[in-house]
Amino acid sequence: MDTIALILSIIGCLNWGLIGIFQFDLVAWLFGGAGSLFSRLVYTIVGLAGLWCISFLFRRNSIVEGE
Fold first, then answer.
1. Cα 67 to Cα 56: distance, rounded to the nearest angstrom
2. What is the pLDDT of residues 47-58, one digit of tens each?
3. What is this structure's pTM?
4. Residue 12's closest CA among 49, 55, 57?
């Protein structure tokens, strides 16, 4: 679950980078506009993944140490 959340968060970061640098929303372009059902679903899933990744900040060192 952690790996999937991290991958989705990276996808979201890349999309925001494209928006910030080139004013190009890749998700909206792929799925038919920012208001389409599929785009909103992707935005929601990526947002939930980002919330999941917040838990990484509060975990003990077991992730870093590989326990």
1. 15
2. 999 999 999 998
3. 0.81
4. 49
